[in-house]
Amino acid sequence: MFTGIVEEAGTLVAFAPGPQGWRLEIDAPRVSAEAQLGDSIAVNGCCLTVARAEGARLGFDVLEETRRLTNFSGTPIGGRVNLEGSLRFGGKIGGHFVTGHIDALGRVEVLEPRGSDHYLRIRLPAEAGRHLIPKGSIAIDGVSLTVAEADGDAVAVWLIPHTLAVTSLRDKRPGDAVNLEFDLLGKYVEKLLPTKSV
Asked: Which residue from 75, 128, 152, 192 has the fewest beta carbons nearer than 10 Å?
């Protein structure tokens, strides 16, 4: 379980197929200082298990299914990825509950400055807009954000300067893929409502 508060924007060192699946390697000086083998780390919002830890470098094994459902393949070597260690009991919850299970890939339509903030609009897969409500929560590449606009199969959020400074969202361009996780509580409500008896 995570909160969507990014601890570090690490650097993608390698992402390639290996004998036992895909291998993802990331330089992450801050997160690696506390990471141990077997720890769960959210990488662009996707929960992965630390399989290798050498100095500032963390290594993860990635299933083919995970590769297919995330934006890892589209992230260039040397590009930044958002990192967050798992929630600890007694820790602060500054964002919202994020499971690290990616629901869908979205595509950046607009990222532009408007005043001192930035406006980010994402195109969703068909029918995915049903998961959103204005002022609800969404995780975009692992960043907990508040839905500013829910317009059919598109979502818009506002990014404060701090969010741009500490996350990889500042690198995004129109057409780039982003990992999306919709609000956990909303998904449960959606699942339960059709079966609710009156």
From this structure: 192
